[in-house]
Amino acid sequence: MTRTAEVVIVGAGIMGCAIAYSLAERGVSDIVVVERDAIGRGATADAAGGIRQQFSTETNIRLATASVRIWETFAERFDTEIGLRQQGYLFLLDDRAEADTFRANVDLQRGLGVPSRWVEPDEIAVLNPHVRLDDVVGGTYCPEDGWVDTYQATMGYAKAARRLGVTFLEDTAVTGITVKAGRVTGIETTGGPISAPLVILCAGPYTRTVAAMAGIDLPIAPSRRMSFVTEPFDRLPSSLPMTIEFSTGLYFHPESGGFLFGMGNPDQPDGFDKTVDEEWMMTTVERLVDRAPAFEDAAVRRGWAGFYEVTPDDNPLLGFVGEPAGLAVAAGFSGHGFMQGPAIGACIADLVIGGESRTIDISPFRPSRFAEGVLAQEHNVI
Ligand SMILES: Cc1cc2nc3c(=O)[nH]c(=O)nc-3n(C[C@H](O)[C@H](O)[C@H](O)COP(=O)(O)OP(=O)(O)OC[C@H]3O[C@@H](n4cnc5c(N)ncnc54)[C@H](O)[C@@H]3O)c2cc1C
Questions:
Q1: Which residue owns the Cα nearest ligand 1 atom 51?
Q2: For residue 2, what pLDDT is reported?
Q3: What would the pLDDT profile of 321-357 be if each residue is shown by its tens digit?
Q4: Dist CA 99 CA 92 (whole Å)
Q5: Shortest-distance Cα residue to atom 6 of ligand 1
Q6: pLDDT tens digit string along 50-78?
Q7: Which of 235, 271, 239 is nearest to 254 (CA)?
Q8: At what angle do helices 150-163 and 58-78 cross, to 10 degrees?
Q9: What DSSP string describes 128-148?
Q10: What is the rounded CA–CA span in Å between residue 48 and residue 46?
Q11: What is the pLDDT confidence band of residue 97, given thresholds at 50, 70 and 90?
Q12: 1, 293, 355, 380 - which has most CB atoms within 10 Å?
């Protein structure tokens, strides 16, 4: 027998779970989330958990700020502890032109209520006394930024969604999307078909593959990113902010008695290779020691690889795809998706129910922008 649903969501990462919860909260009663693996085990599990409001586009700043307000109250709202640590994000800049861009971005952020600020090297030396500053011209800092536990946050949404009646089908892969007369009518899965007038694609790095099942091409490419954690390490205090060397993308923050760190490889080809690149790990460690020499005494405990879901302008595709009707997408977050989950959940729920996102204008991230040639480039990509 064919199962029916009012809404089918493909993928139970932070996006699928937050959207399912937000729809149920707004009274949608028959929601099925289909997940080929287990809840929160995709890109969301591989994320560094960073949350920040220091972006260059108004839409991202608003999405990030609305999300931070939810992260700050998540434990009470969702009865789930997510290990929120608001120790700030500190960007280090070694280029004067880049510094001008960041100063302008701080003005934009502050105009939207974000308490970010420009910091001179002497203040950086107070915020993080352990970084080499001889080439640093300045930086930016926002004390509300920080990090959380991505798995607990995703499970918090999933549990709340379940309590509101949402069905999660784990170990169930979507194998097809059915379309009749230009409209989505449901999906095929390894557990049988599900008929539904509305399908929302939240398949993270695999969204392009799933969208192709409906005959459409969404410009979302998987790009391998690696993170590493050190053994417990007390030469640096656990009170340090997330520190980012913007010119290389090197970042590190305290984590579980040690430190979590990583750096994007600009020559990384697109693809689904999930092995850890030992050579790039060595390059990253060298960079880390160069910027913060105390790490010379740290030992790397483990590393893992995951995928950024990258679009041509480093911003997501949010909303209906156009053709076929009834097919929407929330994917392509280009490395900053986890943190925006709470706001995206609310915006997408409003959009698919009422035709528009009520609180934040997400139209700059409409999927049609690539065909229209109106990109929304994000500058602050790590
Ligand atoms: C190393 C690394 C560090 C990162 N650090 C940060 C950070 O600090 N802050 C931040 O905000 N973001 C970070 N990100 C990005 C973040 O992980 C993603 O943007 C975010 O988790 C995307 O969530 P999602 O729900 O869209 O995707 P996912 O979590 O990937 O969820 C998609 C789900 O869809 C499922 N799926 C796929 N295909 C199918 C199918 N055919 N049928 C059924 N289910 C399917 C998958 O199994 C998966 O569970 C990082 C990413 C990486 C790799």
A1: 47
A2: 73
A3: 999 999 999 999 999 999 999 999 999 999 999 999 9
A4: 9
A5: 47
A6: 999 999 999 999 999 999 999 999 999 99
A7: 239
A8: 70
A9: -TTS--TT--EEEEETT-EE-
A10: 7
A11: very high
A12: 380
Q: Are 169 and 35 in contact (CB under 8 A)?
A: yes
Q: Is 294 in the pocket of ligand 1 (CB under 6 A)?
A: no
> 305 in ligand 1 pocket by Cβ < 6 Å?
no
> Which pLDDT tens digit goes with each residue over 211-222?
999 999 999 999
305 sits in which H/E element: strand 300-310
Helix axis angle for 341-354 and 58-78, nearest 10°, is 100
Pick from 34, 35, 68, 172 the residue to mutate for probing ligand 1's pocket: most ligand atoms within 8 Å of its CB: 35
Among residues 39, 43, 41, 35, the alpha carbon closest in space to that of 172 is found at 35
Q: Determine if ligand 1 sits within 6 Å of the CB of residue 9.
A: no
Closest protein CA for atom 50 of ligand 1 = 47
- From ligand 1's centre to the CA of 264, what distance in Å? 16
